[in-house]
């Protein structure tokens, strides 16, 4: 890579916010002066940039999983509420049929009425 291309790359990284003003100045100085490790500033900045991309990607995946989990749990809760009023075989219980509790109460009332009738006859 030529010196002008490396300078352009440094400027591009600076414009994107990957390099601070101080880092840009040091990296340019190293490139122009030809000091050993001249591209270490660029390497560090590129490493930070790639790390930022990975962190952003991982955060996006985590957020997507949390949202999908929440949607699934909400759908499951709605399904559970809907299934409470269903009888066996997954068919809805007609509203004119009494529930198990109502049938138990009706049996108890019938038993009480029968015992009253039996007491009244004696």
Structural commentary:
The structure is a single chain. By secondary structure, this protein is an all-alpha fold. The protein has 2 domains: 3-66, no CATH class; 90-121. The chain contains 4 helices and no strands. The protein has helices spanning 3-15, 21-33, 40-83, 100-121. The longest helix is centred in the middle third of the chain and has 44 residues, at 40-83. It is rod-shaped. The N and C termini lie far apart (115 Å). The relative contact order is 0.06. The mean pLDDT is 81.
Question: Which terms summarize this structure?
Answer:
122 residues; mainly alpha; 2 domains; 0% strand
Coarse shape: rod-shaped
Average per-residue pLDDT, rounded, comes to: 81
Strand pairing plus helix content: what structural class?
A: mainly alpha
Largest sheet: none
- Helix content percent band: over 70%
Q: Compute the number of helices.
A: 4
Q: What is the rounded Rg? A: 38 Å
Number of strands: 0
The percent range for strand residues is under 5%
What is the CA–CA distance across the termini? Answer: 115 Å
Residue runs with pLDDT of under 50 for 5 or more positions: none
Helix-strand string: HHHH
Number of domains: 2
Mind sketching the topology for me?
Blueprint: H1 3-15, H2 21-33, H3 40-83, H4 100-121
